[in-house]
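Discrete fold record:
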Amino acid sequence: MTSTPLPTTVDPARLTEVLDGRWAQVRRDAREQLGEEKYAPVYGETNAEARERITGLTKDLAATGRTALGFPRAYGGQEDAGASVTSIEMLAFGDLSLMVKAGVQWGLFGGAVQLLGTERHHERFLADIISADLMGCFAMTETGHGSDVQQLRTTCTYDPATETFDLHTPHDSARKDYIGNAAKDGRMAVVFAQLVSGGERHGVHAWLVPIRDEAGNALPGVTIGDDGAKAGLNGVDNGRLSFDHVTVPRDMLLDRYGQVAADGTYTSSIENETRRFFTMLGTLVRGRVSVGGSAGSATKLALEIAVRYGDVRRQFAAPGEDREIVVNDYLVHQRKLLPALTKTYALHFAQEELVSTMHDVQGAADVDEAAQRELESRAAGLKAAQTWHATATIQMAREACGGAGYLAENRLPALKADTDVFTTFEGDNTVLLQLVAKGLLTGYRDAFGSLDGWGKAQFVADQVRETVLERTAARSLIARLVDAVPGRDEEVSLLDRGWQLKAFEDREKHTLDGAIKRLRKGAATKGIKPFDIFNDVQDHVLKTAVTHIDRVVLEAFVAGIERATDPAAKALLAKVCDLYALTTIEADKGWFLEHGRLTPTRAKALTGAVNQLLKELRPHMRTLVDAFAIPDAWVKSSIVDTEGARQEAMAAEDARVRAAAPAGESAVDTPDDTAVDLEMAPAQ
């Protein structure tokens, strides 16, 4: 296997140009406007102190004008949804409490007013929301119904006699919970509830509901509680809201998709209740996209700390040498950091592509329902992938920094605590993967119909072909791509981009076909309930969603590389992409072996190829994290500044002691040969 040599050095600024993408100016402006220490976290605060500080920074942020990016020009905005999400991603390099607070205020609360309301709501409220003069909440989640929003229990019943709604929380499990801005700062909430008019339910809608007076006291009928201490995000005032027959004026219904006349008549341009519900939620996809991108920022920050620390932290000297080895030179350390770093790059390109798609779809003059559904599915899958990757990578980075990584002053504990909830807010990740899978299954149904006639025959033929391939590893087109035979013309390198893309695509297709086959088998079984049919295949369905997202991410990475104009930067990105592709396949090696896509010999070669790529990328680890262009003031980690100086001082002291020792004596304790061998073994 041959590998194109990398340039000795690559300018990280050339990589930054590629990473910054379509909204490069927004990223540059954020580094200049917000790249100061006051936007970084403060360690050791009480909840009250953290909340007070973050509230002040929220006001400061509003004064920069960045909070208006996604809002209409008529109210001081720029109507640039992509810029708005990109700005949130950049904010996530600083204190994540501020990012979440901003997301609640301008993404969720303001976004709901903008996208679910109409002109009268915009005229009355948007300017004050943008300036943070009106602080608000997004009250959707209920204690008993987090993911199943369509079954919310809160009701809002219209009374034509008074031309008002009656908002009511019927029991404790219908309480709105985990609501940002509710415990302290919120004066108004967008409340989601079941709309009832004329004795008939019309599904979930949203209302603007005042919850506090100007003095900060709860309004009559509104009960406000504090969620109390959390694992992280101490600067965010999460709270609980309950409503005891609160009167809401008719014009406070956010009625873009459903209107109630003075006499109680309900009308909507979307007749089907389920379709209307998902259309409403689809307009709020921006929040989910923002969470995924913010998780990516936190991951980059953790990797920057771990890589920079690993470049100066020394541990154990090689036999016969005095100078200890920097930990980034150990293969096992590279095995931790570099695959995570390459996946972070891959997810960055996928996120950038998603934000661009979101911007274009939501900015179109006419709604493209198919494009909107695809956007929602892609946003769901990438949010799950990015937040799970953040959780795993930040933990790995913490361990890679040893005991230092456990100290608050080194940022990693705060990153762990603050991002942990990302896997379950803006949609629980497992539920989101089911949404992705549902889209894939729907697409399959649309392509093959009921699988009668030609569709059924083609489906069966594909299954027979796949079975034969798995049993015999026949040298079909796929087999040639999968199993390289040295010395033969059809040998395909593991570094061949076409082979990598084909491997991802083939795995996705096979898992989807298999899920369909199992669902059809269940449906043909007499007496089995629809729930049991799906539940019995749920693990397979989720696997299908994961393989789909993996393929989407790789394709986005490949497309991103093409944007590079500097040859050295392009070569490095290509190598990073190789490592991402091969480590993804290596992580699922069992599947590729079980299904005839890899032979044992090829699987062993895969591990060797990964190790070779690690060796080639080792000199560029610092370049890859420097390319994130995170201002030092945001990093806020003591070890990246002090460890190098400490190690150099230790080395100088060791040299001084050795020079002063009598001939033939060792003045510095060193491990004996056995200890050295034991300590060095994992790195060899």
